[in-house]
Amino acid sequence: MPDIMTETPPQYILFDMDNTLYDFHFAKIKSCEAVADLVGSGEGEDLFRYFMTGNHGFEHHNNIRDFMNDRCVFEPRLYEEACAVYEEVKVSLLTLYPGVKETLTLLADAGVSMAIVTDAESNQAEKRLAATGLRDYFVGVMTPDQAGVRKPKPEIFHAAAAILKCNVNEAWLVGDSPKREIEPGNLLGMTTVYAKYGDWIGIPYPRIQPHYTLQSFSDLQEITHLKK
């Protein structure tokens, strides 16, 4: 799918959040390391694998419980402390990618209406956006607990577009996951923008082609015609 330069900025953009606006993978790894250090067993990467492959989802604290149980170090008070440390470290280490605030400011000044569509639950999403100082850039935030489904289900993208009061195919979609964002966005007729810099998994999907690819977040200024 070739890049086609627009002449004017889009009216509507939906942004993924984690690993698109900030480095969530780094913060997640460091929070897992902090938990492993606290309980005195295993490594951060060990716990991270529970979040990746466990039965509870990528955010649930039960992954920490399973990690501790499997290492025979589970104690209720230690578990509560581990969960608190995990959340504190994770949020404190969120680091915006270069150019995020500058680019969002230019988009807002150009009249672009923006919203978040994320697989994080509402309380997690709001906490991260507040911690990074980004909340005021977005009209709203669409999450699985509101939409009733997660990406790549089309319903969550329709619900996010409704926040912007537009049809889903009128919106651009910016995200780091080919399977969870670019592919469904293409199927819905959206203009898709692949945040390659944030795709830490890096599995190639040759058949999934975005309209645009970002090597850095600031590249969005050029493809939206904010920067010539």
Descriptive account of the structure:
The protein is an alpha/beta fold and 228 residues long. The protein has two domains: 12-22 and 96-223, 3-Layer(aba) Sandwich (Rossmann fold); 25-92. The chain has helices spanning 24-39, 44-53, 62-70, 76-92, 100-109, 122-132, 144-147, 154-163, 178-187, 219-223; strands at 12-15, 113-117, 141-142, 172-175, 191-195, 212-214. The chain has a six-stranded parallel sheet. α6 (122-132) links the parallel β2 and β3.
Summarize the SSE layout with pairings.
Blueprint: E1 12-15, H1 24-39, H2 44-53, H3 62-70, H4 76-92, H5 100-109, E2 113-117, H6 122-132, E3 141-142, H7 144-147, H8 154-163, E4 172-175, H9 178-187, E5 191-195, E6 212-214, H10 219-223
Helix pairs in contact: 1-2, 1-4, 2-3
The helix count comes to 10
Portion in beta strands: 5-15%
Helical amount: 40-55%
Q: What coarse outline follows from CA principal-axis ratios?
A: elongated
Low-confidence stretches: none
What's the story with the biggest beta sheet?
6 strands, parallel
CATH topology type of the largest domain? Rossmann fold
Through-space gap between termini: 22 Å
- Please state the CA-atom Rg, rounded to the nearest Å: 18 Å
Q: Secondary-structure element order, as H and E?
A: EHHHHHEHEHHEHEEH
Q: Give the strand tally.
A: 6
Q: What is the fourth-level CATH superfamily of the largest domain?
A: HAD superfamily/HAD-like
Strand order in the sheet with the most strands? 3-2-1-4-5-6
Total tally of structural domains: 2
**Proper CATH architecture of the largest domain:** 3-Layer(aba) Sandwich
The CATH class label of the largest domain is Alpha Beta
Write down the overall mean pLDDT. 94
Q: By helix and strand content, what is the structural category?
A: alpha/beta
